[in-house]
Amino acid sequence: MNRAPLKRSRILHMALMGAPDAAGGAEAGPGKPFLLRALQIALVVFLYWVTSISMVFLNKYLLDSPSLQLNTPIFVTFYQCLVTTLLCKGLSALAACCPGAVEFPSLRLDLRVARSVLPLSVVFICMITFNNLCLKYVGVAFYNVGRSLTTVFNVLLSYLLLKQTTSFYALLACGIIIGEWQARAMGHRRYGGPDPKEQPCQASVDFIRPSSLDGGFWLGVDQEGAEGTLSWTGTLFGVLASLCVSLNAIYTKKVLPAVDGSIWRLTFYNNVNACVLFLPLLLLLGELQALLRFAQLGSAHFWGMMTLGGLFGFAIGYVTGLQIKFTSPLTHNVSGTAKACAQTVLAVLYYEETKSFLWWTSNMMVLGGSSAYTWVRGWEMKKVQEEPSPKDNEKSGVGV
Known about the structure:
This protein is mainly α. Mean pLDDT is about 80; it is low at about 1-30, about 180-215 and about 395-400. The protein has helices spanning about 10-15, 35-65, 75-95, 110-135, 140-145, 150-160, 170-175, 200-205, 215-225, 230-255, 265-285, 285-290, 300-325, 330-350, 355-385, 390-395.
């Protein structure tokens, strides 16, 4: 008897809860009325958007607020890891006390497992640190473009480490994200003023005159430079963060068996290792001394915002899994792309910034390329699943 293949949403649920799920999609199954299911999906997507956008704005405040003036990005990251560790342990204890009310895997610190997870934890530490450092040096509006190379690194590392090839259409989507270009707008050169060789009449007619392929990332970098707000340091941290996000996804698959396939156990061990490894960094970089001199160290508002940042960091993992469970991995990626667009618009409005047409074009190219790549990969996976395997063809060809 042929077994029905597991849906990706059910596989994710098994990983999140650390045990097989026999419900088989009861939350979003066909048994519920359409209106109720649509309402549930809308609520989950809204929850994901609010959590993700709020976390980015809150981290920007903690890392680069003129009123706060806290120059300790490593300590901010360390504290968020500490809050996540305590929340995981607290929920595990609560699930043990109230097994019917709370679902959470049991957590017990095993040094052998911690050592097995350590290589991934190093990548995880780099990922969250570079993410926060990128956000410290660039604006929230540019943050999405600064970290837009994750898809490109996914393709590159899949080939270099896993020997997996990528289709032409997926590579074309990556080209839209990064590209290579040279452009002049309104008679202005890159990072400079008016072009002395440009004729006055041409400057008013040639609004955009590309001389080669435009790409969202480089166009965004160029436009940030043209507006005088480009931080090469922040951009470099964004590229490194994108690389670490891709590496983290690859090594997570290898390490999951060490934690019985549980994403929450992996989250616990990653954050425990991070807390330990961050301590020497805090001493070497002098952030503990800077923290002791911090004027608002005893402020309840400061520690409240720090703790809220840790809560958002924990919650984003939960709502991400929740959104995939109620929709699909493909829909989650599309939702993430739309959320990035909304986040960019909100940042421009909140910080009262004025952006050029080319700047907005770069953002749309990054979001469009990411959406195209997500759609292509989803279409390819669906096509592979629908193609019969050679064994099935052999069985169908045998007479009865």
